[in-house]
Design brief:
The chain has two domains: about 1-160, HUPs (Rossmann fold), CATH 3.40.50; about 160-295, 3-Layer(aba) Sandwich (Rossmann fold). The protein contains eleven helices and twelve strands. The chain has helices spanning about 30-35, 60-70, 90-100, 115-125, 125-135, 145, 150-160, 175-185, 215-230, 245-255, 280-290, and strands at about 10-15, 40-45, 50, 55, 80-90, 105-110, 140, 165-170, 195-200, 235-245, 260-265, 295.
């Protein structure tokens, strides 16, 4: 099955930071990213526009300070790796999307705190808007974690950024598309990058109309065995797990029990207004998981 898109190479990485989320510390780990196969790094920061008596005013001093700090990333660049620094003001989502296009980025790294849908409705969310509009995968990491890692831990995190993926599978068309997206990553991946996958299926007590839930653990295990064979064709180490438990809890539990780098998930297009009455699993995971979440956009 072909999705009609270019493979997700994950070699051009865009790191968006507000300089307080812990991601700004990554400017000192360019060689670590290079060891995982990254060939281009773009550090992005957006400075708020001040309101001077109703007249928008660009804070040029703050922009220059941000540029100077992020330029640390350009001081220790291995051969074959390119590092760019982009500092903009206002219109953060538009500027991120423009930077993705300009620098041909194929993965975005973003920090975001745990939020509820009510928080987003009232205050807005860069992550929520990007999820709706982005066309490339998005890796969401909690600032609280990035801020507490030691330098040694950050080095390992950058080297093993997507080494072991937990794939949230449920037999739906969306889940099948996710597996195809993972195979795109695996097909032409560089050395020392994606190595293992955990295929996990949670059988919930209440069946949802949009998901063809397996009636027995044995049925789910049989289906996962076929998916496992498909992934193993790309020299991946694949493990399967089936649990009779609520889906979100299952994925968060497994992420703690196994040596997971990130939870991989995708989502069909769901209008924002429907989320109040029909929660979207991918969006719930993006809000609640303390583990990094690798979000693949709707392949259309």
């Amino acid at each position: 099955m072909s999705l009609g898109r270019k493979p997700y190479m994950f070699q051009n990485l865009l790191i968006c930071t507000d300089l307080q989320d812990g991601l700004h510390r990554l400017v000192r780990f360019v060689p670590s990213f290079a060891a995982s196969g990254v060939r281009k790094l773009v550090f992005f920061h957006s400075v708020r526009v001040d309101d001077d008596r109703g007249v928008p005013k660009v804070d040029k001093a703050a922009m220059e300070a941000a540029r100077q700090y992020l330029s640390i990333a350009q001081e220790n660049v291995p051969d074959g790796v390119e590092v760019e620094v982009v500092v903009e003001s206002d219109r953060i989502v538009e500027n991120i999307l423009h930077t993705i296009k300009t620098h041909h980025c194929n993965l975005v790294l973003l920090g975001t705190d745990n939020k509820t849908l009510l928080n987003e409705k009232l205050f807005g969310s860069t992550t929520a808007e990007l999820v709706e509009r982005i066309k490339i995968p998005l890796l969401v990491i909690r600032p609280a974690l990035m801020s507490t890692y030691t330098e040694e831990e950050l080095d390992l995190r950058c080297r093993h950024l997507l080494r072991y993926l937990l794939i949230a599978y449920d037999g739906s068309n969306t889940a099948q598309a996710l597996v195809q997206q993972i195979t795109q990553v695996a097909r032409d991946r560089p050395e020392n990058s994606l190595n293992s996958c955990l295929l996990a299926w949670a059988i919930e007590s209440k069946r949802r109309r949009d998901i063809p839930q397996s009636q027995t653990v044995e049925d789910a295990e049989a289906i996962l065995a076929e998916v496992k064979q498909e992934l193993e064709q790309y020299n991946l180490t694949v493990t399967t797990q089936v649990r009779e438990q609520e889906r979100l809890k299952t994925m968060m539990d497994l992420a703690m029990e196994y040596d997971i780098s990130a939870i991989a998930v995708n989502s069909p297009s769901v209008p924002r207004l429907l989320e109040w009455s029909r929660p979207n699993f991918a969006n719930l995971l993006l809000r609640r998981s303390w583990h990094p979440v690798l979000f693949f956009p709707d392949p259309d």
